[in-house]
Amino acid sequence: MSRQLDLIRDNLRKQSDKRLLLLITLLFILVQVFIWGVLFRTLWYSDRTITDIPVYYSYASRIAQGFLPYRDFSSEYPPVAMALFSLPRLLSGAGESQFVAWFQAEMLLFSCGIVLLLSWISWRQWQNVWKVAGTLAIYTLFLLSLGSIVQERFDLAAAFLILASVACFITDRYLAAWLLLGIGLMTKVVPVLIAPIFLIAHYRRRQLSEVWMGPLAMIMAALIVSIPFLLTSPAGLANAFLYHVERPLQIESSWSSPILLYSKLTGYPAYIMNSYGSHNVYSTASDTLVMISGPLTAVVLLAGYWIFWRRSGKEGNGLPHISGNMIIRFSVIAITTFIVGGKVLSPQFLIWLIPLVPLVVGADRIVIAGIFESVLLITQFEFPYSYWQLYTLQPYMVVTVAVRNLLLIVLLGMLVAALGSHHRAPSFVTRPGSDIRFLGSGKKFLPFDNN
Description:
Layout: H1 2-37, H2 53-64, H3 79-92, H4 96-126, H5 129-146, H6 149-152, H7 155-170, H8 174-185, H9 195-204, H10 208-232, H11 234-245, H12 256-266, E1 271-275, E2 278-282, H13 286-311, H14 324-341, H15 365-385, H16 387-391, H17 395-417, E3 436-437, E4 444-445
Antiparallel strand pairs: 1-2, 3-4
């Protein structure tokens, strides 16, 4: 009798928790609406002096006039990004002010989608309503800390696709995960950085069919959204990606900071010139740094994937040690490496990390969140409020951006350093006695460690 009463109480508690979870999720969605509708229009967030929306509007207007991207006009943005520009133009008509409002509303929808995904993933992580609320609060704090740039760029769409792909993968929806990566690749190339993590996880789990079917699904998704442009102007589509390969050393990048600091300390000649839609650093060393930035970043990325390969090896029970939290942490490591090592570090790149960092767990979670919060606050101070002081190479702004870039390197080091310890962070929980069959493996594993 007492056992039956315990079961009834447990069921009632779970139902109560799920209702509270829904209420908290809806509350944070309303918070997003308040941020977009009120905060970003007032206080210090209302600065609109530096925005890319006029560029988006220009491209969308050409498409509305019947011009085909890449054939009739060149663009540095992939096809899905162009579609994201076209939708607000379709809804707003020819007015640019209405386009701005609709584009910002589009980014609000992606932010609300991220809230839903974070609620779902963090509930699976902890089965604790208040920890879910904490995760959503951290995400919201990060948005406010970076500032209104989150609604002025389309990077929230890329961040949503990254998070959705990771969410699908760690919940064994592999086809959806790979398809989302393919769409993400045609939005902004950064989601492809997660593909090697998925491949290693498949191989370690002996899901050999998924090792080739997953990348094939990603490529097929990317090809399908690109078919009109591949048929009409394959060279123009290729230029949308080559444009970024050819870019010089951007003023905010980690590689620019040593040059600018050395210039301020010694008088070493360094100049700022405008090209490729950004302000870039030119000196006798800049071309050399541009040449080594790509290969060195690739080496660091490969090192990260190798660490994941080693960490995901079989344990004493013969099962692969791959948890959802490992997938999340290494996704953050890969994207942070790309941001730190790239020759361009635009402030909006940090948006890619904003949904993922709140999901990182372990003894270092608070420290990692604190470092990232500092990075975001410094970035908001630099852009847009002090950007022109950086452009004119005011010493305090050169130092400020260098500190921000150093903190990003520290963040990457912290994310990797914890992997060397024997502490295992708590991971996703499942119902007692349950297991999950991985597709194509033919074997049962327990993918989520609960200690």
